[in-house]
């Protein structure tokens, strides 16, 4: 099996599984089995793909011919490469884990099959983005992911907050996608083809189809789209709200798909990106702001799931910052490597908190206190996940973060650019990340035993037809496959860094000095958190006043800002337009009708005296008109 | 060369008077008279033109004969209609309401 | 001076006259034979139409009453265009005769109809001012009598209105003819005499003035705005069949007369200065008629008044192609007026079938509520006629007629006039669809009782509808006639 | 043969149904109409595949020929019309507008209704197949009266005034457009000396700038009414809101396509230079339409009106593609056309069904969420909305994306069109906003609406009809066909693009 065939299958298998699952939705058990089976097959395929992955730089013979639409070439090809294979593998892994977990977690949900189908479709879309060698296919996967995220986040559609979160997620990303689509359109139109290689070749050649300014503008547009999908500033606020979705959905969205997709796309466009300084600056500044801000917010969250969400925002910012700072020599692989490691540990964290929330009945920090007691696997998984998140040395997250830091340093040292800003932000983020990781750990492993049957917290996903996270019959103990997948993820979190030995990612060695420095920073951050834990509720370690807590939970009021700056003006404009349409545009039409009526009335008045002499009066008028025209037109 | 100004002026005067009569009068018979004036003016014009320059088939002389004949027929019909109207309405004022 | 004469070409005009004389003789000999007059009249009209038929397909020139060469002028032209108009006028009169209905049609009716028909048949063929004037009045005067002689108060009023306008119109025509002769020194209406006169500025002025006055006189007869004021009064007041005659055969005759007057202008079209005054006068007429007619029709609820105003509007449509002053424009006008005459006749016949002959009946639009259900035959015919008048398929022929009418205007570069026509067409659709909507609605409770003795009108409506349907399927049958 | 069958069978049966067969009882009429639509539809599909030609003299004096043929540009539209034709007739088993659902009174006969449907279909098929400019115009006009009958006679039973207003708007508005177009056609045909659409481009190519521009303006203005292009769109919402479901479907899926098809066939193909000169204006109007429609959809309360305004927005993309003047833009417009046809048909079937079930589709009235009470209908709705917002993998995406590409790299007026592309992309985000607004109100929510509604009438309605029976039977079949079409075109756009490719290239390249 060639690498290309694998890539096609990796897209097709989950897509077909989605259709099949949807068709079988009446029979939830078999339906979900189909999607889980397909996910496992995909995983197998992805492993095969790792084995057969072509050596860097080899050209693959396309499986199909190219299409053309008018003057536009539409190759619609998929591709394969070492980094692609690695990312595909981790996507397949996370998807499989999520599906396995879902079968347990949502066992009693009446729309389990639909959920599973959506997850499969989501996976297919991400696979499409990963393997795409055509920008249109990238857009296809990109948008389908957005739609699936809408469905997944809004899965519990009987709950108003979920409906709103889904709407917000889709709308915010879609607004950012204006930029993405325009950027892609501009790049493709300039190159006369949507093929990625053609586009990159065209825009990096000396006779680029547009000025450097245009190139930079287009890349900025693409970056805006990426910022939206990856929940970077100023689009960050949809992601924490998206926690209204079921936890498996969050795991999928955060770990391996949607938010990470931007990294993949920018890596594909890397050759052009390095030439576009403007785009790099935008990306660098946005990510720098985001990674620090999100880390601060993570520190203040009263809900651990939202803490994880903010941590995702921060971590994705780290990935993207690598792309903003890296040089042509280093390439995009540090970012992809961080994507890889982040996918593993973040899915582990989310699945674990899903489990813990079943135990505790809520994801609120207050409810989760001590939830890990009696569930050693959960505690271990949570611990290693947090270690990786904090970037402890040698676990997978630590390794990848080292590479990002080194990349940023090298970028700052060699090329200037946004590197300096990013590097500074990275170092601050390291401290903050360590701090909130320690806090998250402290909450779960707190010595206070949780009450056996905790009440439904306000943030608990509400019953969906009477069934939710709090279904009876679990007794808090997941099924064996779930435990197995958690175990696999945990192991990979620890040893995942070994992937560097395979050469799939083309990254340079990390520097020992930087490792020492970051370790030091981690210790400082973790230590501070430890010292600040206090004696009381660990929830209140850093955010002590209710006002500050509210500020943190609202993400610095970004939602209010969205409403005030976008939603309300647009709706106001819409009302104005509706008024104009009714009264002005249609007014002309009604005016025409009315003027016909008035003309008729006038004419009728003119003919009121229907008498012979009136007729003769009109005759005089007619003669005058005729004579007048005769005189006037005479020359 | 003698200008035939006189006949043309007469023709114009007759037509003008006729048009005025048609427009100003409400009595059907007077309207009829006005039309007759227009006709006479036209006939004068025709004959004067025939005197100025020859016309094919002596049209300037023949056409008036035709016109006079038609006018006679027209007057007959007109008077008949006016009589009918008078019988029904008791007046031949055209603007009188039904 | 000798005149070359071929009687065959004159028959369409002569046969009705002959029939008229025969009717009078028969009436004198056998006053009891009530059926004789209508039958003879019908035969005369039908025969006249039949003798005009060869002209529809003939290819060679069909001129007669010609003076010898080299100065040869022909006083009578029986070409396809003429023949088409003759057939239309004669058959329309025949239809009106049927509408008057066998029992009512007295000798006087028949005689007047025949006289008018022969005038109409002659005027469209005439090519000199003498014939033209005489026959035009022959076509007009009997109609006045027709309106008047039924002893009714309203009819007398209508007749008085028609009479005064006709008188003025006649005065204008004579004035125009006098000016024409003064300007050209030639009583024939031919291109070369006009072209000769056109070279001298003073003569040009005179001829243009003559034409404008002639057009104004004819505009009375066509009821074009601003010479239209008699139309609603007379049509609404007179007997329905006579209104139908005024709207069909008389209109055909008037259009034919106008075509005769405008024919010479083709020879001066390319010259500089061109016939701007004539074009301006025609444009004024067509624009004013189309707009005022439709706008007024929009406000009518009395159906005959509505039809009267629609007549005014359609007069504008007939004049529209003539503004181009080309042969194509003349043909288009002929096609349009024929289509209009047929559709108008069908509409009047349907109205006659619904209401009966009396003016006193409530001829309101509401009487047509759900007619299509109550009376599928009359309703269907009326619906078809309305769609043809509106120019909407399935009345394809109406649409084709509009295409035909707009085409010469556009070719002549007068597309702003065409844009006005667009407005008029849309308003026209509003007029007819308004009625059509009433037809297809639910039948109301207070529908008028079905008329007896409506066979003739239903027959006319059906025959007319058949013509319309046939022409809709094969428009070439009609469009091709005049080429 | 296939061409003749395609036109004759629905046409003749339709005519018979509205005249002689009016007395037929509803069931027989439906069967007859369905058979006719199916035979005509099959013939149309065969004709689209075999590409036969019918060419006979019709009105030689006008140079009008009875000339029908199908090429790559019309083939997808012919197939679309054929399919929609069958679907709307089949829909007569679901919704019976000839029985007044509101008062229980009969209005009109079933046969007339079905006959009008068939006649609209015939007119559209004839227009798509016509290869003669004047014949195209006549076929274009054929649809007016039957559609008018559908709206004025079988429309919303609640308000006679609304029916009269909507139907009058429809017929007068479109008549303005078509008559303007007629003037343009006659000017074109007169100048070029032929009415044959095959020969016209070459013959008209020699015209100077002035005539070309004038002809293009007249034709474009006339056809823009039908599309409809902002600001000539105000007939559309009224017509859609009032028309019966089948009428709305025909209107959106077929009649609007006549407008864009006409734009391709007449100005774009024949007077390319003139069209290029006015293209910026057209593009701006299209883009304003995108924003305008999208913004109104954000606040519109009536769901049917909302879908109608979204049509305005979607046709804006089609117009933008056309205005770009490139082969890519033309292809974008053609596939956008087809996509909008199936998507809007799908949405109107759903919304019409909802109106049938609920009595009104006022979004301000709280109703049971479709996802909960009728999942199949809900699925179709959400799919239609997703397609409407241009989700890749569904039909709407390709037209919009390609239109953007084409507008970014147009054949002329790069500055204006690029700006338009940017604004159009913003409009795409608006599409998402209003689609999700609808989804949030109609699709998701609780199974039982809150009992307390402010509006007493609406409250009463709710009490009467809180049930929303899920779709089944014929309606399900109709929806299934449309859903399948939406997905197929979205996943395999080449089913359409490959058909239109050669003709589009020839059209854009061959006009010069």
UniProtKB/TrEMBL annotation, chain A:
Its keywords, alphabetically, are:
Membrane, Transmembrane, Transmembrane helix
Which topology term describes how it sits in the membrane?
Multi-pass membrane protein
Q: Which GO terms describe its biological process?
A: ATP synthesis coupled electron transport; electron transport coupled proton transport
* Domain (NADH:quinone oxidoreductase/Mrp antiporter transmembrane) ranges: 132-410
InterPro entries under this entry? Answer: ND/Mrp_TM, NU5C-like
Membrane-crossing segments per the record: 6-24, 31-55, 75-100, 112-129, 135-153, 165-192, 252-275, 281-300, 344-368, 380-399, 419-438, 480-505, 511-532, 614-634
Q: Which GO terms describe its cellular component?
A: endomembrane system; membrane
**Which cell locations does it reside in?**
Endomembrane system; Membrane
Q: Domain of life here?
A: Bacteria
MF terms from GO for this chain are: NADH dehydrogenase (ubiquinone) activity; NADH dehydrogenase activity
UniProt signal peptide: none
Q: What is this protein called?
A: NADH-quinone oxidoreductase subunit L
Annotated source species? Knoellia aerolata DSM 18566
Automatic annotation (TrEMBL), chain B:
Q: What keywords tag this UniProt record?
A: Cell membrane, Membrane, NAD, Quinone, Translocase, Transmembrane, Transmembrane helix, Transport, Ubiquinone
Query: What is the membrane topology listed in the Swiss-Prot or TrEMBL record?
Result: Multi-pass membrane protein
Q: InterPro entries given for it?
A: NADH_UbQ_OxRdtase_chain4L/K, NUOK/Mnh_C1-like
Biological-process GO terms, alphabetical = ATP synthesis coupled electron transport
User: Which Pfam family, any one of them, does this sequence belong to?
Assistant: Oxidored_q2
- Cellular localisation: Cell membrane; Membrane
Q: For this UniProt entry, what's an example GO CC term?
A: plasma membrane
Which family does the entry's similarity section mention? Belongs to the complex I subunit 4L family.
Described by its record, this protein's role is as follows: NDH-1 shuttles electrons from NADH, via FMN and iron-sulfur (Fe-S) centers, to quinones in the respiratory chain. The immediate electron acceptor for the enzyme in this species is believed to be a menaquinone. Couples the redox reaction to proton translocation (for every two electrons transferred, four hydrogen ions are translocated across the cytoplasmic membrane), and thus conserves the redox energy in a proton gradient.
Name of the protein in question:
NADH-quinone oxidoreductase subunit K
Per the UniProt record, the lineage of the source organism begins with: Bacteria, Bacillati, Actinomycetota, Actinomycetes, Micrococcales
Q: Source gene?
A: nuoK
From TrEMBL, chain D:
- Coiled coil location: none
Location of this chain's protein in the cell? Endomembrane system; Membrane
Q: Which domain of life is it from?
A: Bacteria
The record's GO molecular-function terms, alphabetically, read: NADH dehydrogenase (ubiquinone) activity; NADH dehydrogenase activity; ubiquinone binding
Tell me the Gene Ontology biological-process terms attached to this UniProt entry: ATP synthesis coupled electron transport; electron transport coupled proton transport
TM segments?
Answer: 33-54, 75-94, 133-151, 171-193, 213-236, 248-266, 278-299, 306-327, 333-354, 375-395, 415-436, 473-492
InterPro entries in the record, alphabetically?
A: NADH_Q_OxRdtase_chainM/4 (IPR010227), NADH_UbQ_OxRdtase (IPR003918), ND/Mrp_TM (IPR001750)
Q: How does it sit in the membrane?
A: Multi-pass membrane protein
Using the UniProt record, give the first listed, main subcellular location: membrane
Tell me which UniProt keywords the record has, alphabetically. Answer: Membrane, Transmembrane, Transmembrane helix
Locate the NADH:quinone oxidoreductase/Mrp antiporter transmembrane domain: which residues?
130-416
| Cited Pfam families | Proton_antipo_M
One Gene Ontology CC term in the entry: endomembrane system
Whether Transmembrane helix counts among this entry's keywords is yes
Family, according to the entry, reads as follows: Belongs to the complex I subunit 4 family.
Provide the protein name.
NADH dehydrogenase subunit M
């Amino acid at each position: 099996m060639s690498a290309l065939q694998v890539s096609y299958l990796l897209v097709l298998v989950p897509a077909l599984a989605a259709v099949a699952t949807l068709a079988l939705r009446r029979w939830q058990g078999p339906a979900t089995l189909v999607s889980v089976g397909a996910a496992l097959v995909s995983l197998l395929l992805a492993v095969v793909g790792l084995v057969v992955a072509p050596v860097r730089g080899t050209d693959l013979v396309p499986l199909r011919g190219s299409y053309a639409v008018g003057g536009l070439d539409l190759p619609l090809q998929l591709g394969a490469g070492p980094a692609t294979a690695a990312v595909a593998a981790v996507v397949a892994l996370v998807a499989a884990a999520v599906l396995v977990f879902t079968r347990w977690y949502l066992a009693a949900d009446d729309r389990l099959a639909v959920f599973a189908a959506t997850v499969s479709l989501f996976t297919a879309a991400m696979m499409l983005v990963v393997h795409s060698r055509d920008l249109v296919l990238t857009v296809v996967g990109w948008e389908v992911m957005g739609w699936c995220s809408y469905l997944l986040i809004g899965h519990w559609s009987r709950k108003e907050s979920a409906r709103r979160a889904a709407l917000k997620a889709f709308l915010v990303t879609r607004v950012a996608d204006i930029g993405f689509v325009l950027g892609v359109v501009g790049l493709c139109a300039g190159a006369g083809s949507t093929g990625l290689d053609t586009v990159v070749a065209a825009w990096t050649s000396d006779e680029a189809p547009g000025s450097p300014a245009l190139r930079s503008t287009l890349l900025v547009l693409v970056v805006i789209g990426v910022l939206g999908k990856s929940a970077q500033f100023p689009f960050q606020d949809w992601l924490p709200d998206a926690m209204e979705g079921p936890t498996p959905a969050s795991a999928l969205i955060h770990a391996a798909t949607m938010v990470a997709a931007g990294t993949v796309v920018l890596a594909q466009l890397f050759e052009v990106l390095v030439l576009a300084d403007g785009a790099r600056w935008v990306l660098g500044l946005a990510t720098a702001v985001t990674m620090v801000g999100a880390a601060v917010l993570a520190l203040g969250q009263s809900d651990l799931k939202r803490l994880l969400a903010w941590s995702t925002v921060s971590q994705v910012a780290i990935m993207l910052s690598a792309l903003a700072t890296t040089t042509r020599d280093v390439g995009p692989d540090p970012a992809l490597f961080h994507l890889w490691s982040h996918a593993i540990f973040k899915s582990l964290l989310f699945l674990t908190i899903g489990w813990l929330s079943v135990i505790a009945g809520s994801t609120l920090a207050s409810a989760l206190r001590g939830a890990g007691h009696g569930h050693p696997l959960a505690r271990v998984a949570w611990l290693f996940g947090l270690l990786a998140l904090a970037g402890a040395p040698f676990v997978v997250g630590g390794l990848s973060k080292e590479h990002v830091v080194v990349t940023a340093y090298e970028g700052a040292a060699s090329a200037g650019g946004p590197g300096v800003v990013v590097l500074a932000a990275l170092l601050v983020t390291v401290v903050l990340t360590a701090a909130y990781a320690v806090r998250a750990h402290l909450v779960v492993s707190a010595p206070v035993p949780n009450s056996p049957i905790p009440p439904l917290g306000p943030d608990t996903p509400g019953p969906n037809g009477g069934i939710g996270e709090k279904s009876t019959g679990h007794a808090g103990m997941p099924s064996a496959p779930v435990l197995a997948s958690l175990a696999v993820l945990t192991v990979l979190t620890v040893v995942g860094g070994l992937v560097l030995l395979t050469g799939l990612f083309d990254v340079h060695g990390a520097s020992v000095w930087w490792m020492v420095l970051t370790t030091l920073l981690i210790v400082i951050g973790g230590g501070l958190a430890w010292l600040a834990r206090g004696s009381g509720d660990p929830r209140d370690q850093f955010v002590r006043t209710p006002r500050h807590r509210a500020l943190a939970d609202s993400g610095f009021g970004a939602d209010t800002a969205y409403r005030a700056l976008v939603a309300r003006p647009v709706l106001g404009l819409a009302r104005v337009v509706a008024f104009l349409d009714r009264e002005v545009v249609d007014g002309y039409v009604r005016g025409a009708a009315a003027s016909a009526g008035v003309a008729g009335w006038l004419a009728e008045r003119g003919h009121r005296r229907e008498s012979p002499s009136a007729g003769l009066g009109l005759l005089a008028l007619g003669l005058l008109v005729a004579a007048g025209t005769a005189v006037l037109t005479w020359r | 060369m003698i200008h035939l100004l006189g006949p043309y002026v007469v023709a114009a005067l007759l037509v003008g008077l006729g048009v005025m009569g048609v427009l100003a009068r409400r009595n059907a018979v007077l309207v009829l008279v006005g039309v007759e004036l227009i006709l006479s003016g036209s006939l004068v014009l025709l004959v004067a033109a025939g005197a100025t320059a020859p016309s094919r088939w002596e049209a300037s002389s023949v056409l008036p004969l035709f016109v006079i004949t038609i006018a006679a027929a027209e007057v007959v019909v007109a008077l008949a209609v006016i009589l009918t109207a008078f019988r029904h309405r008791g007046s031949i004022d055209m603007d009188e309401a039904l | 001076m000798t005149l070359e004469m071929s009687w065959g070409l004159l028959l369409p005009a002569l046969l009705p006259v002959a029939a008229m004389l025969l009717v009078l003789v028969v009436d004198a000999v056998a006053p009891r034979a009530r059926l004789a007059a209508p039958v003879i009249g019908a035969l005369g009209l039908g025969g006249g139409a039949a003798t005009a038929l060869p002209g529809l397909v003939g290819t060679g020139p069909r001129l007669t009453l010609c003076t010898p060469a080299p100065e040869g002028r022909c006083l009578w032209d029986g070409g396809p265009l003429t023949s088409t108009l003759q057939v239309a006028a004669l058959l329309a009169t025949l239809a009106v005769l049927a509408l008057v209905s066998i029992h009512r049609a007295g000798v006087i009716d028949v005689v007047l109809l025949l006289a008018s028909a022969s005038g109409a048949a002659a005027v469209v063929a005439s090519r000199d001012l003498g014939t033209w004037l005489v026959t035009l009045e022959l076509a007009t005067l009997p109609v006045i009598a027709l309106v008047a002689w039924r002893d009714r108060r309203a009819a007398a009023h209508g007749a008085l209105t028609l009479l005064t306008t006709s008188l003025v119109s006649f005065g204008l025509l004579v004035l125009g003819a006098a000016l024409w002769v003064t300007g050209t020194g030639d009583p024939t209406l031919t291109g070369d005499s006009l072209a000769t006169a056109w070279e001298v500025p003073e003569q040009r002025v005179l001829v243009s003035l003559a034409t404008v006055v002639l057009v104004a006189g004819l505009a009375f007869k066509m009821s074009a705005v601003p010479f239209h004021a008699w139309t609603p009064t007379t049509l609404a007041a007179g007997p329905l069949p006579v209104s139908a005659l005024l709207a069909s055969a008389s209109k055909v005759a008037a259009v034919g007369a106008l075509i005769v007057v405008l024919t010479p202008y083709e020879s001066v079209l390319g010259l500089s200065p061109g016939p701007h005054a004539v074009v301006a006068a025609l444009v004024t007429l067509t624009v004013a008629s189309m707009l005022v007619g439709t706008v007024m029709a929009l406000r009518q609820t009395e159906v005959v008044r509505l039809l009267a105003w629609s007549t005014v509007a359609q007069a504008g449509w007939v004049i529209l192609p003539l503004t181009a002053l080309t042969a194509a424009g003349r043909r288009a006008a002929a096609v349009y007026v024929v289509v209009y005459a047929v559709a108008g006749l069908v509409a009047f016949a349907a109205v006659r079938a619904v209401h009966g002959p009396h003016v006193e009946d409530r001829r309101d639009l509401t009487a047509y509520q759900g007619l299509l259900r109550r009376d599928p035959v009359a309703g269907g015919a009326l619906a078809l006629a309305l769609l043809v008048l509106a120019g909407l398929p399935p009345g394809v022929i109406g649409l084709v007629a509009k295409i035909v009418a707009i085409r010469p205007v556009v070719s002549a570069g007068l597309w702003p006039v065409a844009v006005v026509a667009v407005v008029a067409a849309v308003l026209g659709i509003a007029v007819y669809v308004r009625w059509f909507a009433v037809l297809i609605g639910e039948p109301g409770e207070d529908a008028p009782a079905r008329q007896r003795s409506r066979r003739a009108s239903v027959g006319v409506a059906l025959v007319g509808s058949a013509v319309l349907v046939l022409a809709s399927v094969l428009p070439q049958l009609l469009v091709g006639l005049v080429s | 043969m296939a061409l003749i069958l395609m036109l004759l069978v629905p046409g003749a049966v339709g005519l018979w149904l509205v005249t002689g067969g009016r007395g037929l009882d509803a069931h027989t009429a439906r069967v007859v109409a369905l058979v006719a639509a199916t035979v005509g539809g099959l013939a149309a599909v065969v004709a689209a595949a075999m590409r036969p030609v019918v060419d006979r003299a019709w009105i030689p004096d006008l140079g009008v020929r009875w000339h029908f043929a199908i090429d790559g540009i019309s083939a997808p539209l012919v197939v679309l019309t054929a399919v929609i034709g069958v679907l709307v007739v089949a829909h007569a088993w679901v919704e019976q507008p000839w029985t007044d659902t509101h008062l229980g009174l009969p209005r009109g006969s079933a046969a007339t209704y079905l006959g009008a449907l068939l006649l609209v279909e015939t007119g559209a098929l004839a227009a798509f197949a016509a290869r003669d400019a004047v014949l195209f115009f006549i076929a274009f006009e054929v649809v007016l009266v039957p559609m008018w009958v559908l709206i004025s006679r079988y429309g919303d039973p609640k308000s006679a005034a609304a029916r009269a207003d909507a139907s009058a708007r429809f017929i007068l508005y479109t008549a303005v457009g078509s008559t303007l177009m007629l003037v343009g056609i006659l000017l074109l045909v007169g100048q070029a000396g032929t009415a044959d659409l095959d020969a016209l481009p070459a013959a008209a190519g020699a015209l100077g700038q002035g005539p070309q521009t004038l002809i293009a303006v007249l034709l474009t203005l006339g056809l823009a009414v039908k599309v409809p292009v902002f600001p000539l769109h105000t007939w559309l919402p009224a017509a859609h809101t009032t028309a019966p479901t089948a009428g709305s479907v025909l209107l959106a899926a077929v009649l609007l396509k006549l407008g864009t098809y006409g734009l391709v066939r007449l100005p774009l193909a024949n007077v390319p230079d003139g069209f290029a000169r006015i293209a910026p204006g057209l593009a701006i109007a299209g883009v304003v339409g995108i924003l305008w429609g999208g913004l109104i959809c954000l606040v519109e309360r009536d769901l049917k009106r909302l879908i109608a305004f979204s049509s305005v927005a979607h046709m804006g993309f089609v117009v933008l593609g056309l205005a770009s003047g490139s082969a890519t833009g033309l292809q974008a417009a053609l596939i956008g056309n087809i996509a909008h046809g199936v998507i809007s048909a799908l949405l109107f079937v759903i919304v019409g069904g909802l109106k049938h079930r609920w009595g009104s589709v006022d979004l301000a009235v709280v109703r049971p969420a479709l996802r909960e009470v009728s999942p199949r209908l809900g699925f179709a709705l959400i799919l239609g909305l997703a397609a409407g917002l241009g989700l890749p993998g569904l039909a709407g995406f390709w037209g919009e994306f390609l239109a953007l590409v084409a507008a970014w790299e147009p054949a002329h007026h790069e500055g204006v069109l690029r700006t338009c592309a940017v604004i159009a992309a913003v409009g795409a985000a608006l599409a998402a906003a209003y689609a999700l607004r609808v989804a949030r109100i109609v699709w998701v929510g609780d199974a039982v609406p809150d009992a307390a509604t402010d509006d007493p009438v609406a409250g009463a309605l709710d009490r009467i009809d809180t049930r929303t029976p899920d779709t089944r039977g014929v309606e399900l079949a109709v929806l299934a066909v449309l859903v399948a079409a939406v997905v197929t075109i979205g996943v395999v756009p080449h089913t359409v693009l490959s058909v239109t490719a050669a003709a589009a290239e020839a059209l854009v390249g061959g006009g010069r």
